[in-house]
Amino acid sequence: MTTPERQRLREDRTRAKNWKRWGPYLSERQWGTVREDYSEDGNCWNYFPHDHARSRAYRWGEDGLLGICDRQGRLCMGLALWNTKDPILKERLFGLTGHQGNHGEDVKELYYYLDSTPTHSYMKALYKYPQEEYPYSKLEHENKVRGFLMPEYEILDTGVFDQGYFDVMAEYCKHSPNDVLAKYTISNRGTERATVHVLPTLWFRNVWSWGKEAYCCVTPKPHLSQVSNTKVKCDHPTLGEDQGHHIDPTVDQASPPAAYCGPFFWEVDVDQNNKEPELLFTENDTNFKRLFNMEGKGYAKDAFHDYVIKGQKSAVNPSHCGTKCAAHYVLTLDPGEEFTIKVRLYYELEAPKHGIFGPDFDDTFQDRQREADIFYEEKIPMKDKQQRQVSRQAYAGLLWSKQFYYYVIEEWLKGDKNQPKPPASRLKGRNFEWMHLFNMDVISVPDKWEYPWYASWDLAFHMIPMADIDVQFAKDQLQLFLREWYMHPNGQIPAYEFSFQDVNPPVHAYAVLRVYKASGPKNKRDLGFLARCFHKLIMNFTWWINRKDLEGRNIFTGGFLGLDNIGIFDRSKPLPTGGYLVQADATAWMAFFCSIMLEISLTLARRDCIYEDMASKFFEHFVAIADAINHQDEIGLWNEEDGFYYDHIRVNGKKTMPLKILSMVGLVPLFSCMVLKYEVLNRHPGFHKRTKWFLQNRKDLAQHISFMCENPDENEETLLLSLVKKEQLKRVLAHVLDENKFLSPYGIRSLSKHHKKEPFILECGGHSYSVKYEPGESESNMFGGNSNWRGPIWLPMNYLLIENLRRYDYFFGESFKVECPTGSGKFMRLTDVAHELSVRLSKLFYPDPRGVRPCHGDEERYAKDPHFKDLILYYEYFHGDTGRGCGASHQTGWTALIANLLRYVAIRERWVSAVQLAQLRKVSNAGIPLDIDIMLDLSSDSEMSS
Fold first, then answer.
1. Gap between the Cα atoms of 592 and 502, Å rounded
2. What is the pairing mode between strands 644-645 and 638-639?
3. Measured between alpha carbons, how far is 723 from 94 in angstroms, rounded to an integer?
4. What is the pLDDT of residue 929?
5. Residue 661 above 70 pLDDT?
6. CB-CB contact of 710 with 750 (8 Å)
7. Domains of the chain, with CATH numbers?
8. CA distance 85 to 69
9. Helices marked H in 817-896 — which ranges?
10. How far is it, in rounded angstroms, from Cα 493 to Cα 539?
11. What is the mean pLDDT of the chain?
12. Residue 609: how many CB atoms within 10 A of its CB?
């Protein structure tokens, strides 16, 4: 069935209509970022602090409150608020810097993403604004005096919301691709009559202050001008042109179009007294007088702050023009009363024909809301209310976390003509090796406040749930990071802006394969996408082999690999013991990479047999890694005594000691599991022939392959490619499913709980290094202290484990059962263990009988207050014992994986009994719902039925 949102996605994909041109691409924090840092010491927090944000023009982006912008961040729209008591105008979210927070940077606001369609034809988000003075200094002081062992001091702890607050609901919808409607509904949640100033704000990103040599400099300068009491004209040299979907740095995007097609207009409705609001104008320029005690020219970025709070009429431009404008509403609301402000931004050629704020305005909102419901009824096949709510808000957060990300390294390193020259040390400082990097795209980021930049391994996980609702965007994102202006010429994928050179786990290929499988039924999947990615992924694979296998023995070292403080010391720096670290996770990740590339090769070999050669290469490389990691000499990382994989310190080419830490590092080897069925092997005769030769002539390596003979008379063998043999798998899972070790009521911990009583301690050079169980926030400042892998639950790693347990079950079936939980006497097939883990993870977000969702900790408002109880936060990670959310509070990117797990749980419960599941494994996909087809697609050849 073609739904309206499906039709819009199709029109956007074919570029018939640019439905995604406007969206939630406005960052929530541009201050304190690496992009805006031109300091000599690289301290981005101090160079551009929050106090400067309202008064200082940004070079590389913009930020705002519940805002939107076009896909190139040229014209931005958001909100500003004042409760008559705050010292500053609330134009952006506030939080503590990495130095101020006792666990690193941390946003201190209450806001929630509630809904969005993939084309952003309908969007909804909520911000809660206190009626008392916002406690900026209190938050800074209290967190400053708290140590690592104390909890974070949150905005709800201040008591400011006990005195009443305003709910500010922002809703956006699209009548057409360039006709955007906005409703801002302000509700008084206090017990007294209260006044709030609301300023819907429109502004151009500053592209004129940096010099003509800057890539985005445009001529003439963008311009806003009042044309009636409620209408503003928006002139921009390129905005009137409906440009393409992505920035190609080889094309001069900054040049004005040959035929300028006309301006946009911005109109606002009347206030609660049926009066027209006052329109205010200024320039999006730095206030040099306030910040640097220098005389500036013209009107400044913070003019509305001075006008509204200080009453300085001269702060705004009396000529009613500039590059930033706002409509000033003053609302006085009784307890429980609400008022809706209506705003419309539209292109001249798409002007509404029946009035700006007439019945058509409300009808469009109703239509888009209804169409969003229809879209998600298809995408979320659950009947359970809680499952649907958790999934829908997870998708909303995933879609709201798109951001226009602009960062051109060459311009950033060398500086701009119209600005002070950066220090000479900058040319050999942060990211100088990435001179080719040209980022100017809408990108899925982990958290638009705490991580307002991409992280490549996060993004790979983001695209798995994204593919369920917008497979084209998922494909575009994965391809983007393989383009020549992202990927380094040596094959490395950029990590994140603090250090593009850092090494993240190689999960990009995995995401490519998962998105490919979600691109359609088996006979209609996008092989072109898969092939384009494959050739670039070979470059990335080669970079890993050349850079991270120090001795050429298939044992790898990669650094911290995204797991931050999981080790006994910083794994990216020289060891205090001397020598270097050989890593169980780095080695296992490379085996994982091999198995994915093997599967992609076989899939592409269906179209062209030349890919069989690459399949053979990855098969042999996988087996070599399996041999190395399990070898019982100075190379291997398997510990037979403990039944676990450990990192080892090597000095002078010899293994000196294992670091016996039961952590996620030792679970990564379980992520490599690939089933090669006989019919798959038979379909690729070249690959099959070389595989048989290899297994017959390299029995020293073949011992690490598991065989299952389906038809002994016909010699029809099924192969299991895994780093772990059957007995090893059973021993590792005994640790994993032990509730006194890894198994939490809410999923798998990243460190065994037994290290709470038995910390791992290493004495070296007069210093003591230790790792102990820390179920919540980090208790040290390693990697800034805002991320912790010493005990909490992380969704992406749980997701990979669950997926591979199903693969192991696909191979072993009823012949392999484990005790779950360990010591319980209850034995399960691995598919049932996977289901059990999925259910435990889902409990993070479900209300218990008291109405408490574990992710919200002990905060009673979320259980009892009707204006809080349906709001869900998707944290970066979760407390290993209680399930309380930790880290970034809006990291809906990879935490949105919960939607995939809930879908699997619901489909299993709805469609598949234990008997049916066994039967489905033996039949073709005819008549099987697509969701089941994808989830049972566990064999190596994704083009064939499981």
1. 19
2. antiparallel
3. 46
4. 36
5. yes
6. no
7. 4-379 (2.70.98), 734-911 (no CATH)
8. 29
9. 830-842, 861-864, 892-895
10. 10
11. 91
12. 13
DSSP state of 256: P
Three-state DSSP class for residue 777:
coil
User: Residue 103 and residue 114: Cα distance in Å, rounded?
Assistant: 27
One-letter amino acid of 901: L
- The answer for residues whose C-beta is within 8 angstroms of residue 438's C-beta and 6 or more apart is 247, 249, 408, 409, 485, 486
Torsion of CA 234, 235, 241, 247, to 10 degrees: -90
Whether the link from the prior residue into 821 is cis, omega within 30° of 0, is yes
Residues 560, 564, 570, 572: is their CA dihedral positive or negative? positive
Backbone angles phi, psi at 556, to 5 degrees: -115, 155
User: What does the pLDDT average to over 821-848?
Assistant: 96
The C-alpha torsion from 493 through 37 and 874 to 171, rounded to 10°, is -110
Expressed in angstroms, the distance from the first to the final Cα of the chain is 26
Q: How many CB atoms lie within 10 A of CB 498?
A: 16
Distance, in Å, from the CA atom of 911 to the CA atom of 554, rounded to the nearest integer, reads: 43
Residue position matching structure tokens 């889902």: 842
Euclidean distance between CA atoms 597 and 741, whole angstroms: 33
State how far the Cα of 289 lies from the Cα of 280, in Å rounded to an integer: 21
Measured CA to CA, the distance from residue 625 to residue 497 in angstroms comes to: 32
For the chain, how big is the Rg over CA atoms in Å? 28
Under DSSP, the state recorded for 939 is B
CA–CA gap between residue 259 and residue 264 (Å, rounded):
15
Summarize pLDDT for 9-68 with one digit per residue, the tens: 999 999 999 999 999 999 999 999 999 999 988 999 999 999 999 999 999 999 999 999
256: pLDDT strictly greater than 50: no
User: HEC profile for 521-577?
Assistant: CHHHCCHHHHHHHHHHHHHHHHHHHHHHCCCCCCCCCCCCCCCHHHCCCCCCCCCCC
Question: What pLDDT does 560 receive?
Answer: 78
Q: For residue 243, count CB atoms less than 10 angstroms from its CB and return exposed for 0-12, middle for 13-18, buried for 19 or more.
A: middle
- What Cα–Cα distance (Å) separates residue 332 from each residue in 329, 336, 916? 10, 12, 61
Q: What tokens were used for 858? A: 């002990």
Q: Which two tokens stand for residue 338?
A: 């609400």
What pLDDT does residue 677 have? 87
Instruction: Quote the pTM value.
Output: 0.94
Angle between helices 471-480 and 456-469 (to 10 degrees): 160
* Rounded Cα gap, residues 237 and 676, in angstroms: 57
How many other β-carbons are positioned within 10 Å of the β-carbon of residue 58?
A: 23
pLDDT confidence tier of residue 318, bands split at 50, 70 and 90: very high
Model confidence pLDDT, tens digit, residues 509-543: 999 999 999 999 988 999 999 999 999 999 999 99
Q: Closest by alpha carbon to 93, among 122, 128, 57?
A: 128
Distance in angstroms (rounded) separating the CA atoms of residues 181 and 173:
5
Q: What is d(CA 622, CA 723) in angstroms, rounded to the nearest whole number?
A: 9
Average pLDDT over residues 268-279: 95
* Amino acid, single-letter form, for residue 814: E
How big is the CA angle at 709 (ends 706 and 713), to the nearest 5 degrees?
Answer: 150
Identify which of 767, 777, 783 has the alpha carbon closest to the alpha carbon of residue 571. Answer: 783
Give the single-character DSSP code of 916: H
How far is 45 from 364, CA to CA, in rounded Å?
43
